[in-house]
């Protein structure tokens, strides 16, 4: 989300309603966090990359937080492949019901999920990966949207009529309540969170990116992209 034109911001393979939503969300995050972020240092061949055949394309941009930033970094990416092909809790919600109350119940963050669940095309999403199911927060909104024979037309209606408002509200809550929070963690709690985050980041690269990017693009392209993500993840 830098001032320069970034391939990440173009979303060339999305239909209009989806592209408009993504650009609106980027603008909202940029308006709030942009002054606290350093310029992107991602090389051009990672900002935009593609497979040798051109069948798979992607873009990745990363901006680290400055000294006074409330976030470590912002990572943006999209992948497009011609082949067929989530809010982690910052505390254990069973052990810390006060956290659940402050960030989920008082903000009414479950309302968007309830609104989505009313749509006949929407079903809960359950990952085929046991690991993903084990780390995915029970508060995460993960759904499948099956538009059936109506296809793209129905999806456009859902995007503009429901998902646009829902996604913007979730990002607003995150910006207002989490990204701008002045709360400080104790040393032990911070160390535990960093350890947990590090384990998830390592597994994300091992199970998802390292396994799938070489197949979609090529080992050389995948190594460049994963390398930049590892820098941001500090692993």
Automatic annotation (TrEMBL):
One of its GO terms (molecular function) is red chlorophyll catabolite reductase activity. Pfam families: RCC_reductase (PF06405). GO terms for biological process: chlorophyll catabolic process. One of its GO terms (cellular component) is chloroplast. Gene3D superfamilies: 3.40.1500.20. Signal peptide: none annotated. This is Red chlorophyll catabolite reductase.
């Amino acid at each position: 989300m830098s001032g320069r034109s970034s391939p990440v911001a173009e979303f060339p393979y999305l239909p209009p309603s989806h592209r408009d939503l993504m650009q609106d969300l980027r603008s909202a995050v940029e308006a709030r966090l942009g002054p606290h972020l350093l310029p992107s240092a991602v090389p051009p061949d990672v900002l935009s990359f593609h497979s040798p055949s051109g069948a798979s394309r992607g873009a990745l941009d990363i901006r680290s937080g400055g000294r006074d930033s409330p976030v470590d970094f912002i990572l943006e990416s999209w992948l497009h492949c011609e082949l067929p092909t989530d809010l982690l809790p910052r505390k254990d919600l069973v052990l810390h019901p006060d956290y659940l109350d402050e960030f989920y119940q008082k903000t009414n963050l479950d309302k968007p999920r309830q609104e989505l669940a009313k749509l006949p095309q929407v079903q809960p999403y359950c990952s085929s990966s046991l690991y993903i199911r084990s780390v995915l927060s029970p508060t995460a909104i993960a759904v499948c949207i099956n538009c059936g024979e109506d296809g793209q037309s129905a999806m456009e209606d859902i995007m503009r009529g429901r998902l646009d408002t829902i996604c913007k509200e979730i990002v607003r809550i995150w910006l207002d309540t989490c990204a701008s929070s002045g709360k400080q963690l104790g040393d032990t709690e911070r160390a535990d969170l960093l350890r947990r985050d590090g384990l998830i980041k390592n597994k994300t690269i091992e199970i998802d990116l390292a396994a799938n990017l070489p197949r979609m693009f090529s080992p050389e392209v995948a190594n460049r992209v994963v390398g930049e993500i590892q820098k941001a993840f500090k692993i």
